User: Fold Transcriptional regulator from Paucilactobacillus vaccinostercus DSM 20634.
Amino acid sequence: MIRNILSLLHKNGYVKGNVGKNGGYQMILSLAQCNVGELYDLTIPPTISYARFITGKTSLLEEENETHETEIESNIAETLTDLFTLADQDYRAFYHQFTLADLKQDIEHHGYFQRKIDEQ
Assistant:
């Protein structure tokens, strides 16, 4: 998994590096140039993170015994997927407010993110 992420970062110009025994990776961009949201989107695309809820009959026997579905039963999977998708979009937008430089600031001075949000 780490190799896959490093490969993505390399292909998108965030790091340079070499594979192999004496290989390694190094950041090309400054921390201020690396947006947390962009990195999140790059490494965890929305199509992977969006939940797909599956509901309904779990066996043929259930289908034979129940011939009708309720409105809730027939629509809940799409509704839950829509709800999760909207929440994930907001989550991603939140991350786009910050850079890795902000992350470093919060590591050094816990509470930095909250202060930054409060200032906006």
